[in-house]
Inverse folding.
């Protein structure tokens, strides 16, 4: 049995549609924070003597560093678009936002697996670059991916009460 719509109040104005639940907004804010961090942090971390301004880096290494920084910005913008867009299917938008938000951090985590890769060049490998024995990059990756997972769980669209339920 379907619920009938609520009658309009005596003023003749229909009640406003309820805003997104607070948990969904909190999830979107978490995903947005990761997106902004993804777009800004590569410039903060890399526009210095350890990367872009490192005189020991060849031009092609700088090219790829620029590519990585620009990719972070583009992924951030795309994530924000899908987190806050109002058109289309909310579930599909959330999935797109989560995938886009995670790509930068998953690719950074995988980068250490390439031959000759190191978290730090030797002259910058200092004790202060580790947290609980982990390189600071790994800690940031874990935190970003945890925020993405938490944001995704909170931002999930509420199930439609009229939709049939299916089990897998």
């Amino acid at each position: 049995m379907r619920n009938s719509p609520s009658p309009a109040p005596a003023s003749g104005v229909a009640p406003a549609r309820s805003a997104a639940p607070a948990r969904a907004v909190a999830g979107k804010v978490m995903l947005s924070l990761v997106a902004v961090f993804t777009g800004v942090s590569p410039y903060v971390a890399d526009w210095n003597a350890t990367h872009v301004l490192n005189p020991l880096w060849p031009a092609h290494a700088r090219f790829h560093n620029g590519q990585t920084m620009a990719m972070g910005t583009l992924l951030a913008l795309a994530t924000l678009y899908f987190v806050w867009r109002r058109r289309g299917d909310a579930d599909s938008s959330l999935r797109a936002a989560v995938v886009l938000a995670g790509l930068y951090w998953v690719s950074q985590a995988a980068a250490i697996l390439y031959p000759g890769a190191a978290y730090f060049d030797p002259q910058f490998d200092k004790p202060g670059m580790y947290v609980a024995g982990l390189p600071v990059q790994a800690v940031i990756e874990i935190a970003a991916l945890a925020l993405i997972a938490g944001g995704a769980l909170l931002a999930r669209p509420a199930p439609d009460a009229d939709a049939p339920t299916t089990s897998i």
Observations:
- The chain has a mean pLDDT of 88.
